[in-house]
Amino acid sequence: MTALHIKRAYEPREDADGCRVLVDRLWPRGLSRERAQMALWLKEVAPSDALRRRFHGDPAGWEEFKTAYYAELQQPPAQSAVRGLLDRLSREPVTLLFAAREEIRNNAVALKEWLENQIG
Predict the structure, then answer these.
(1) To the nearest whole number, what is the mean pLDDT of the chain?
(2) pTM of the full structure
(3) Which pLDDT tens digit goes with each residue over 59-99?
(4) Which of 107, 116, 2 has its CA nearest to residue 48?
(5) Are 116 and 26 in contact (CB under 8 A)?
(6) Are strands 94-98 and 4-8 parallel, antiparallel or unpaired?
(7) In this predicted structure, what is the pLDDT of residue 57?
(8) Dihedral (C-alpha) 44, 47, 2, 63: value to the nearest 10 degrees?
(9) What angle, 0 to 180 degrees and rounded to 10, lies between the N-to-C axes of helices 76-91 and 107-119?
(10) Is the dihedral of CA 84, 86, 91, 94 positive or negative?
(11) With contact defined as beta carbons under 8 Å apart, do 53 and 62 qualify?
């Protein structure tokens, strides 16, 4: 496996980023596609709107969010995208991009943790 990173979508591209993948359901506000320089936008691996809204209103529920999010990642729409992401990760570095201001507790952090557990 190659490197798996996370960073805000607003941060400039770096060579170490490898394949830049947006993992949010909504496009980052005020960010042009040219400036984003991302290869993929995987809405399928983003938390559902209901889960995103519930967590956004209660950041203290981080562990509860991760449990619900990981359950969503096991569902068929997400699984296809996850398989593609893991395949890409086997060939090149991948950077998961997110738009949230919160850099410690967001879906990209949770997704990175989940993917690393899937890899072993």
Answers:
(1) 93
(2) 0.92
(3) 789 999 999 999 999 999 899 999 999 999 999 999 999 99
(4) 107
(5) no
(6) parallel
(7) 66
(8) -160
(9) 70
(10) positive
(11) no
What's the length of the chain? 120
- The residues, ordered by sequence, that sit 6+ positions from 67 with a Cβ below 8 Å of its Cβ are none
Higher pLDDT, 113 or 1: 113
Q: Secondary structure of the chain in the HEC alphabet?
A: CCCEEEEECCCCCCHHHCEEEECCCCCCCCCCHHHHCCCEECHHHCCCHHHHHHHHCCHHHHHHHHHHHHHHHCCHHHHHHHHHHHHHHHHCCEEEEECCCCCCCCHHHHHHHHHHHHHC
Question: How far is the C-alpha of 96 from the C-alpha of 9, rounded, in Å?
Answer: 9
Beta bridge partners of 19: 94
Kindly list the strands in the beta sheet with 4-8, ordered across the sheet, starting from the edge strand earlier in the chain: 4-8, 94-98, 19-22, 40-41
